[in-house]
Amino acid sequence: MKHLLDTRDLTRTQAIEILDVADYMAQVKAENRKLNVLAGKTVVNLFFEDSTRTRLSFESAEKRLGADITNFAARGSSVSKGESLKDTAQTLKAISADAFVIRHSASGAPQRLAEAGWTDIPVLNAGDGTHAHPTQALLDAVSLRQFKAQRDGLDSPRGTDLSGMRVLIVGDILHSRVARSNLWLLKNLGADVAFVAPPTLLPVHTERWKQDWGLEVFHDFDDAIATKPDAVMMLRIQKERMNAAYFPSAEEYTALWGLTKERFENLLAQPQEVAILHPGPMNRGLELCAEAADSQNAWVLRQVSNGVAVRMAVLYLLLTDGSSEKLYSGDES
């Protein structure tokens, strides 16, 4: 694996290895340990789009692995003066960058950076337009696998997939790179995936995904809940990407597609325990009720914590010659 651009690029074996390494990194983080496996390497965080959780998560991961960090923000840089992505990347490579972490508002920008021949170092996609957000999908998968292991009484989730799990992804699918990356990854790991959204918030590719990936689609949230999901992932309404009225009002959206108190109680009434996920930031009262957000079923904070572990795992696997087995044996050099 040279780059991490999209979860569609990962084989099932590669995905499980990343999840396994992330579980190990979560233990390292819980023990407040640092691994100096990236000592002497410089990671450049290229953020052309505003971010808080993803940027801080990558910085924390890089520090825990002992890397040197260069943060680049488009505002106030030469980009604001018209410098191209190519020239920016080549300039930063010239100051001894060993990897790029890039977040960009344009779909395909990380792939362009990785494949255009502008640089020969690893590129990690931290979110591009409405296209992909692979590390978010990976941290969601880590969280779901931990939930499954905890619920089923397994000693460890290591080596397991998500077979037998049913996941509802609810809300603004149209503008969500998280939904797309989760579809590819969760299906590859054996989960059943269903999108729940109004027709106006579904991508034009939905029918093809139904045929090619076995995706299920619901326009009625209550009908979807009746299928007894193991996890419900609520998506943020991305108002900043909307230039039209995709639903009549916030009140109607909540009534039809929000995780209200009544719907949450219906989930709790199911025989199996259900996990509630959200990529953040949450719009409480719009996408989900406070009762769900603050419940023991909510895995939102675990997702944030697992984000650091996943990014540590991906950076380790891309930037070292070490294998996951070296980590488990204690030979991290």
From TrEMBL:
Residue stretches in coiled coil: none
Domain of life of the native organism: Bacteria
GO terms for cellular component: cytosol
Sequence ranges assigned to domain Aspartate/ornithine carbamoyltransferase Asp/Orn-binding in this UniProt record: 164-318
Residues that bind L-aspartate: K81, R177, R236
Record has Transferase as a keyword: yes
Reaction catalyzed: carbamoyl phosphate + L-aspartate = N-carbamoyl-L-aspartate + phosphate + H(+)
Amino-acid positions noted as binding carbamoyl phosphate in the UniProt annotation, renumbered to this chain: R53, T54, R103, H133, Q136, G280, P281
Subunit: Heterododecamer (2C3:3R2) of six catalytic PyrB chains organized as two trimers (C3), and six regulatory PyrI chains organized as three dimers (R2).
Protein name: Aspartate carbamoyltransferase
